[in-house]
Each structure stands twice: as C-alpha cells, then as structure tokens.
Amino acid sequence: MQKEIFKKILQERFSCREFQEKPLSKEELDYILEAGRVPPSSLGLEPWKFIVIEDSKHKKEIAKIANSQRHVAECGAIIIITARLDFGEYFIKKLQSRNMSQEELQKRINLYKPFIENMNATQKLHYAREQTFLALGNLANAATALNLGSCIIGGFDNEALDNYLKLDVTKEKTSIMLVIGHKATNVIPQKIRFSKEEIVDFSKNL
Ligand SMILES: Cc1cc2nc3c(=O)[nH]c(=O)nc-3n(C[C@H](O)[C@H](O)[C@H](O)COP(=O)(O)O)c2cc1C
C-alpha cells in the first residue's frame, strides 16, 4: 500500500505554473515544512533554512527577481531555501545533542573539525547548497501528497534575492525556491523522461 502511495506521489508531482488565487492553510504549510525539516544531511549538519513568503506584495517583488515568472507572483506561498554557511559555528553543539559517549564525541570532533575548517567560502556554499536539494525534493513531494501544485524555481538572481531578503551572507545564501499553491486545473501533464535503459547501466565493464 505504502509503495503504491509513494509511486503515485512521484508520478503526480509536476511543475505547476497555473494557480488559483487562494492561500495555503497553516496545516498545509506545516505539513510541507515538516517534510523539509527531516532529510538526511552530511555529518547531520542540516545546512538549510526556509523563508516563507505569503503576502502578495512580496511575492510580486520576488517574481521580478525571478525573471518576472508569473507563477512566482501568483502562487499561494513561496518557500525559499537558503544554504547555511555557518555550520562551523554549530557543528560541535549539534554533535553533542546526539546520543554518544564522550570518547566517541571527541573522536568525531577531531575527525570533522579539520574537514569543516579547511573549506573555503565557495566549497562551503557548494557543500551546503547540494544538500538543500534533498529538502527541496521532500517539500515538492509533500505538496503533491496534499494535492497541491508546486514548481521549483532556480531561475532567479541569487545575489539580488540575498539582498532583498537582507541575508547575512556570511551565514546563509539563497539556494533554490519552491512555489506552491492550489492548482488551477486537475490535469497532470504526461511525464517526458529518458527510459531506464537510457540512464541505468547494470553491465559496466570495469
Ligand atoms: C534546479 C531546477 C530549477 C528549475 N527552475 C525553474 C524555473 O525557474 N522556472 C520554472 O518554471 N521551472 C523551473 N524548474 C522546473 C523544470 O522546468 C521541470 O522540473 C522540468 O521541466 C520537468 O518537468 P516536471 O517538473 O513537470 O516533471 C526547475 C527545476 C529544477 C530541478
């Protein structure tokens, strides 16, 4: 049963670009954000945050930063995922919150500290940003589970959005957005994808 539900969600998610003019309920947003909170992350650092924009003025202003994409202005809510760059400041605390012996804790600190401290700013952004996409997938699938439409928005000016949101860019930078709303129609477009044969290789000659 569970596997059928999961498959249905994967098949029914599509990039929705026509929304009804209707906000999301608090319960809907909570459900979606909870899915964004729980993905796996490297060293358990959860290097992401979520900024939720629901009011029409700010949605329109963000749409302008996103190449004037109409669905960004017309959705019910925008969730902007930021990539955290400040994990060096909290990683010890985060490790301490997990259940392990002092000895194990110290071992992990000794192992991770140089890895984290040797990253330059670009490497930190790359490391955090790739992980935000795990949260992104969860958010989009959670929206589908509620029969809501969603569309990933990568077409925007990151620097302009960082400025607009007044982010402290030493601590976080915008990564990717998801716009969510009530779908204007119930038609699910056909999925156009490569076949398994084209993308899966079981017979690599090594
Ligand atoms: C990283 C990324 C960035 C994207 N940026 C945009 C965007 O700026 N605007 C948009 O309308 N769709 C955007 N999309 C949605 C893709 O166009 C869409 O996922 C793809 O065409 C497959 O269609 P489907 O999502 O309906 O299955 C983006 C998707 C991804 C994964």
In words, what does this structure look like?
With 206 residues, the protein is α+β, with helices and mostly antiparallel strands. It has a domain at 15-84 and 131-186: NADH Oxidase, CATH 3.40.109.10. Helices cover 49% and strands 14% of the residues. It has 9 helices and 4 strands, in the order ααβααβαααβαβα. It has helices at 2-12, 26-37, 56-65, 70-74, 87-96, 102-117, 121-145, 158-164, 196-199, and strands spanning 48-53, 77-84, 149-153, 172-181. Strands 1-2-4-3 form a 4-stranded antiparallel beta sheet, with helices on both faces. Helix 2 (26-37) packs across helix 7 (121-145) and helix 5 runs antiparallel to helix 6 (102-117). The longest helix has 25 residues, at 121-145. It is globular. Bound molecules: flavin mononucleotide (FMN). The site of flavin mononucleotide has 10 residues, from strand 3. Flavin mononucleotide binds at residues 14-15, 17, 69, 151-155, 191.
